[in-house]
Write a structure and sequence with these properties.
The structure holds 3 protein chains of 3 kinds.
Chain A: H1 10-22, H2 28-53, E1 63-73, E2 76-84, H3 86-109, H4 116-135, H5 139-157, H6 164-195, H7 200-210, H8 220-235, H9 244-247, H10 253-262, H11 267-274, H12 276-279, H13 283-304, H14 310-330, H15 334-361, H16 379-393, H17 399-413, H18 419-444, H19 461-476, H20 490-495, H21 514-541, H22 544-552, H23 554-561, H24 566-592, H25 598-607, H26 612-618, H27 620-643
Antiparallel strand pairs in A: 1-2
Chain B: H1 9-27, H2 34-53, E1 59-61, E2 66-68, H3 70-97, H4 104-120, H5 124-142, H6 149-180, H7 185-193, H8 200-216, H9 226-232, H10 235-260, H11 265-287, H12 293-314, H13 317-345, H14 365-379, H15 385-399, H16 403-429, H17 443-461, H18 464-473
Antiparallel strand pairs in B: 1-2
Helix pairs in contact in B: 1-2, 1-4, 2-3, 3-4, 3-10, 3-13, 3-18, 4-5, 4-10, 5-6, 5-10, 6-7, 6-8, 6-9, 9-10, 9-12, 10-12, 10-13, 11-12, 11-16, 12-13, 12-15, 12-16, 13-14, 13-15, 13-17, 13-18, 14-16, 14-17, 15-16, 15-17
Chain C: H1 2-22, H2 26-46, H3 50-74, H4 77-82, H5 90-110, H6 115-118, H7 132-140, H8 145-166
Helix pairs in contact in C: 1-2, 2-3
The chains are: A mainly alpha, B mainly alpha, C mainly alpha.
């Protein structure tokens, strides 16, 4: 059975085709039922595969299945091959597991929306593409999945077509992602040119032979890994391509939970871990990855402090946590990054779904300052979100504590780490606890604000059941990766076969005593509690202080609120620059004609509608002829330089 | 030497069909003239069948004026498919615009003869004649909407500038004859290896030839005519210019440079490097601010010619393969896009502004979904043909150490993404401005749109088959 | 002797070509063009290609140019006369033309291998024993059969095109 693991792709694809082709004419129950059943079937199947997989000896946990030779052209071969190893196994389980819960949740959340069949078709297609991404046995197939999830994300962000901002946000997400994708593709070309293969197995094996030792400086491997990392920054919303994720919150909330928190945005992390054999041999790029991760984590956490929109807080939080993951990868702790990805998937999905439940109750009121006092009417949402908040803030013994703490410890302890990373990580931990508790206090406590009465209740089992299950998972998921002073790190051992071709920097071997590690963990915990306590002081008791602070320091507040004005800078320099180039230079000069210059600008418009004979004399045609002669003159100039 | 008439069977068939159609004009009552379009499509289909049967034939014919090989065979098939699609979308177009069918289809068939001759030509004289037949028919077809000043302008500009560029090309051919003592491809290639490639005459001839081809293929800075001509011409003819005509010129250029002028590779590679970079940048950036779909697609086609040059510059069989595959993909998606625009433009081409596409997404699912497929393919998103086109082209270029140019190409296509996406967003994510007006979709156009969409997806999911044909044609 | 004749003819050709495009009166333009074409015929005679030279005179000077003149006579000349012959952009045009000429002459004279040395042996018609006309006929119906035939397709297309564009109601 295990060799048929790739069949897990079939149900989501079938669900997509079913809903996409026939869904329009079917009742909502069947549409949503089919959507959920497809993912559920895939998840159950993968559980069965997992049960078999875990019994295999570690050396055999690397199953490659070649479906067919996809493209064969001279030296260029691309297989349609799938790879099942511990890394893809764990990713697949997260994707389909969390995905299933979110599908179930969607049946309630999206009730009564028009075009439900589109929603479920896209969502199923997303699961298919994401599974393809993590199951791919080579970079090309991975890229197909990579683009596919981008497309689904784009379609789902723009789901509410009546909202203008939704269309713009979708476009922004797509464009920014494509900049990253372009770099990714260049990296893939470079891999093929250098090593002649794109298959993971043979590629990593070749790399470990040809580059036994890591090398500093700008080597081919550095170029490849740099390009792949730029691709990852696009998908995972890291500096400098982080701008799209907050806007992506325009999509339905379950989409934010699944795509823009739990799965798709972690594809960048997955890519780097998958390419660990390359990254571990390019230490300078690793350093860059760590620095980008730290900076993103800090920047996003600071921005999250002052957001009013509940989903934006969670979006910046996601960016920040992804920054954590990249920090872990940057110090060479690849499995730690996956550990945090794993736990983060649960608690962040939980938090988004909780936020969705709040939105359902408040008729899509997004402003935190217009909420309050929901703890009585939304009991389940409230306590599950507290679990998620505590997990995210890293309160012992919830899952986030273990994974985040491991990242901080690696940042300090790893040979590639640095105390600066650790300190920055601690600050982010404190900020995280602060903004999450702020969110909780504002939404659930205090007096009910603005016309939303005490009455009303949870939206039903389809909402509460996923919340409860995710809360359970968020609480205990950390147990698979206990720190050394507590016991056995199962995830580390499980993932070991993935890194067999990577260069071992000795990251996982402990360099310091258990007591120091315990001390560091204690410090992180203390800072988190401090952040939470501060939020309690500011937002649970007296809410006037934050406003006064904001009034007192408008510049800082404004800068934070607008994410350090990065968006504005981008639109000014990049978008504005290109458009100006297009309009002012190319269109006016090249298109209308440089020779007549400004005189023709107004005149040509008039001429456009006048007769042909006048046009002939207008100079346009002659200008074009002049361009042709110029082209010829340039060609001759070059020939002159050749003949000399 | 043998005459070997059979080698030119498709061309002969088309020429005879063209003449027969002209003879039929006075006989046929004017209401029945619609049938001329279907007859032309049938003739193209018959020529396609003969061309397919001739796949695999090799060797010279007509005293070495033409030569059959896989490259010519593949190119011929591509042109015939393109012209057939153009003919099919023309039928309803002419009817709707109340234009005469009579001379239109013979001219289209003759243009196809010209393209087809360019594909199999083995002599500069034949190439020149083929190109001129193609050009002159195209000049006339571009001005076929005689009542519209834009169409007249288009034809006149195209004609004047085309004649101008022809002078360059002809001078180049004359100089090459002077340097090599032959106009035959093989003769020139041989002379080049015997030291003629170093002479001023030879290089000058090559340079002038490049100027001529550069104009026809709309490479910067010789592209200036394209937007005006494409915008003014009837939509099916714009498709013909952007696809068949451009492909014919590019394939001929590819054959000349790879087979006849490999000895001067250093020179033409540098020249084309610059042209390619300029073409990609200008095409993509200028498209950003366009507000008319035809003009937008014109700039887009300029940009795509820039990408295609990458494979030419690579100067390797893999590069040639990439060019051919890309041309196949490009033809499918561009023809499809123009077919949608043709249908959507409605009478007198009133609806070709970008704004007119606002909110049509769910109202006209066939048009909008297929246009989206074509646009995604033009961007280069898997699983569409455009993705693999770019992939093969760029990877061949990287293999040929054109890394800088590939980086430029990838960046340029990232810019291009913006304007294609704008159209998709307009269609699906914006509300329509005005109450809907019905958009009739004639059967022939519907067939073309569906076939092109299916082809775009087929090449995107399973490119291997077409790729292997392209490889065979490229001599891999 | 031949060289002197060549340069004399070239001078005539260039002079009349410039006059053709600068003359205000279209009839004059046409007459200048006739003179230029006659100079081209002179080149052919100089190259001992008597047949082509004769065809040049007959077809261009005799046929096409007379047709041109007829057309010009039929169109009202006054209207054309009022149009400025030289546009505002003549400066650009002159600069570009001069640059192009300069580059071409540099290429021809300054190249490491000059134009003259770069010439190949004449290829097709080498026999002077047989009659010139006969030789042309022979290649036209053997080697160049296909271009000869295809040229008729080109002419057909041109005729159809001219009719389509020019006629008021077809």
């Amino acid at each position: 059975m295990i060799e048929y693991f790739w069949l897990a792709l079939v149900p989501p694809l079938a669900g997509f085709l079913f809903n996409g082709l026939a869904g329009k004419r079917l009742p909502a129950r069947i549409v949503s039922g089919a959507g959920c059943a497809a993912i559920g079937a895939s998840f159950l199947f993968l559980l069965a595969v997992f049960a078999e997989f875990i019994r295999l000896p570690a050396s055999e946990q690397q199953i490659v299945h070649r479906l067919f030779t996809w493209i064969q052209a001279g030296t260029f071969t691309a297989e349609c091959s799938f790879l099942l190893d511990p890394l893809s196994m764990i990713m697949l389980l997260v994707i389909t597991g969390v995905g299933f819960l979110i599908h179930v949740y969607s049946t309630a959340y999206m009730k009564g929306e028009s075009g439900l069949y589109r929603y479920f078709a896209y969502l199923n297609l997303f699961i298919f593409m994401m599974s393809l991404l993590v199951m791919a046995g080579n970079y090309l197939l991975l890229f197909v999945g990579w683009e596919g999830v981008g497309l689904c994300s784009y379609l789902l962000i723009g789901y509410y077509i009546e909202r203008r901002s939704a269309g713009d946000a979708a476009k922004k997400a797509f464009v920014v992602n494509r900049v990253g994708d372009a770099c990714f593709l260049l990296g893939v070309f470079l891999i093929f040119k250098t090593f002649g293969t794109l298959e993971f197995g043979s590629l990593f094996e070749t790399v470990s032979r040809t580059h036994p030792q890591p090398e500093g400086g700008f080597t081919v491997l550095a170029a490849i890994t740099l390009l792949l990392f730029l691709g990852a920054t696009g998908k995972s919303a890291q500096i400098p391509l982080q701008v799209w994720l907050p806007d992506a919150m325009e999509g339905p909330t379950p989409v934010s939970a699944l795509i823009h928190a739990a799965t798709m945005v972690t594809a960048g992390v997955y890519l780097v871990v998958r390419s660990a054999a390359l990254y571990s041999r390019a230490p300078d790029v690793l350093l860059l990855v760590a620095v980008v991760g730290v900076l993103t984590a800090l920047l996003a956490a600071l921005t999250a402090l002052v957001q009013r929109d509940i989903k934006k807080v969670l979006a910046y939080s996601t960016i920040s946590q992804l920054g954590y993951m990249f920090m872990a990868l940057g110090v060479g702790a690849f499995s730690t990054g996956i550990f945090h990805l794993f736990t983060h998937a649960f608690f962040k999905a939980l938090l988004f779904l909780g936020a969705g439940s709040v939105l359902l109750r408040l008729h899509h009121e997004l402003d935190l300052f217009r909420m309050g006092g929901l703890k009585n009417s939304l009991r389940v949402t409230c306590w599950t979100m507290w679990v998620g908040t505590a997990a995210l803030a890293g309160i012992v013994p919830l899952s986030g504590f273990f994974s985040k703490d491991e990242i901080l410890w690696r940042a300090l302890d790893s040979p590639l780490g640095h105390p600066v990373f650790w300190v920055a990580g601690l600050v982010v931990a404190g900020l995280t606890a602060f903004y999450m508790c702020r969110l909780m206090f504002l939404a659930f406590y205090g007096s009910p604000a603005h016309g939303h009465g005490e009455s009303g209740s949870e939206a039903g089992t389809a909402v509460t059941a996923p919340l409860t299950l995710l809360a359970g998972a968020a609480a205990v998921a950390g147990l698979i990766g206990l720190p050394a002073y507590l016991g056995d790190h199962r995830l580390d051992r499980f993932l070991e076969p993935v890194f067999r071709y990577s260069y071992d920097h000795g990251v996982s071997a402990s360099h310091a005593s258990h007591s120091l590690e315990l001390l560091a963990a204690g410090a992180a915990l203390a800072i988190s509690l401090l952040g939470g306590a501060l939020a309690y002081r500011l937002y649970a008791r007296d809410r006037s202080l934050p406003r006064r602070l904001a009034d007192r320091f408008p510049a800082i507040h404004g800068t934070l609120q607008r994410q350090f004005r990065i968006d504005e800078a981008y639109s000014l320099f990049v978008v504005g620059g290109l458009k100006a180039l297009s309009r002012r230079v190319l269109w006016r000069v090249v298109d209308v004609g440089v020779v007549d210059g400004a005189v023709n600008g107004t005149a040509s418009l008039f001429r456009r509608w006048s007769g042909v004979a006048a046009r002939m004399q207008s100079g346009n045609t002659r200008t074009y002829a002049a361009w042709i002669v110029t082209g010829a003159a340039l060609v001759f100039l070059y020939l002159l330089s050749v003949i000399g | 030497m043998d005459l070997n008439y059979a080698a030119l069977l498709p061309e002969i068939l088309l020429a005879v069909a063209g003449i027969l159609l002209m003879l039929a004009i006075p006989v046929l009552p004017s209401r029945q003239q619609v049938r001329l379009g279907y007859a032309a499509s049938l003739a193209l289909a018959a020529a396609l069948v003969t061309a397919l049967l001739q796949w695999g034939d090799h060797g010279p014919a007509f005293f070495g004026m033409v030569s059959m090989d896989a490259l010519g065979g593949a190119a011929r098939i591509l042109f015939l498919v393109s012209s057939a699609a153009v003919a099919l979308i023309s039928v309803s177009y002419l009817k709707r615009e109340r234009l005469r069918h009579g001379e239109y289809f013979p001219l289209l068939l003759m243009a196809t003869v010209g393209m087809s001759l360019m594909a199999v030509s083995a002599d500069l004289i034949m190439t020149f004649l083929g190109l001129e037949i193609l050009s002159i028919s195209s000049y006339v077809l571009a001005g076929y909407r005689r009542g519209d000043p834009r169409s007249n302008e288009s034809a006149l500009k195209y004609f004047l500038l085309g004649a101008f560029s022809t002078a360059f090309m002809l001078y180049g051919i004359a100089l090459l004859y002077g340097a090599a003592g032959s106009t035959k491809y093989a003769g020139i290639a041989e002379a080049a290896t015997q030291g003629q490639a170093e002479t001023a005459t030879f290089l000058l001839g090559l340079g002038l030839l490049l100027v001529g081809f550069g104009f026809k293929a709309a490479l910067a800075p010789l592209h200036v005519w394209t937007p005006d001509v494409y915008q003014g011409a009837p939509v099916p003819i714009t498709a013909h210019l952007a696809v068949g005509s451009k492909a014919a010129v590019l394939i001929t250029l590819l054959r000349l440079l790879h087979q006849v002028f490999p000895a001067s590779a250093d020179q033409w590679q540098t020249l084309l490097w610059i042209a390619s970079a300029a073409t990609m940048i200008i095409g993509n950036v200028a498209a950003l601010t366009q507000t008319d779909v035809k003009r937008l697609l014109a700039y887009s086609s300029i940009a795509h010619a820039g990408y295609i040059l990458l494979g030419v510059i690579a100067n390797s069989p893999r590069g040639a393969q990439g060019v051919l595959f890309y041309l196949a993909a490009y033809s499918l998606m561009t023809l499809g896009a123009f077919a949608v625009v043709q249908v959507f433009a409605r009478r007198e081409e009133r609806f070709t502004k970008l704004e007119d596409f606002r909110g049509i997404g769910y109202r006209h699912p066939l048009l909008s979904v297929s246009l989206t497929i074509f646009l995604l393919s033009l961007i280069g998103i898997p699983p569409t043909a455009g993705f693999y086109g770019k992939l093969f082209l760029f990877s061949a270029a990287v293999e040929a150490d054109l890394v800088a140019l590939v980086i430029l190409a990838v960046l340029a296509s990232a810019v291009g993404l913006y304007y294609y996406l704008q159209l998709i967003v307009l269609m699906f994510m914006k509300e329509a401005a005005s109450p809907p007006e019905p958009v009739p979709v004639p059967l022939a156009a519907r067939i073309v749109i569906l076939l092109m969409a299916a082809g775009t997806l087929y090449l995107g999911v399973y490119p291997a088959q077409v790729l292997s044909i392209a490889g065979e044609a490229a001599g891999l | 002797m031949e060289t002197y004749l060549f340069y004399a003819l070239a001078l005539i050709l260039v002079t009349f070509s410039i006059l053709t495009v600068t003359a205000r009166n279209p009839v004059r333009s046409a007459v200048y063009l006739v003179s230029a074409l006659l100079a081209v015929a002179g080149f052919f005679f100089l190259l001992e290609a008597e047949f082509v030279g004769a065809v040049q005179v007959l077809v261009y000077v005799g046929g096409i140019m007379v047709l041109f003149l007829f057309v010009i006579m039929l169109v009202s000349i006054e209207a054309l006369d009022r149009q400025p012959k030289v546009s505002r952009q003549w400066r650009t045009g002159v600069v570009l033309a001069v640059v192009l000429c300069l580059e071409l002459s540099l290429l021809i004279f300054r190249g490491t291998v000059s134009l003259e040395e770069g010439l190949a042996e004449p290829g097709i018609i080498t026999t002077t024993e047989t009659m010139n006309t006969e030789a042309v006929g022979t290649v036209l119906y053997s080697t160049y059969l296909l271009p000869f035939e295809i040229a008729s397709v080109l002419l057909l297309v041109a005729i159809v095109g001219a009719v389509v564009l020019a006629k008021k109601e077809i």
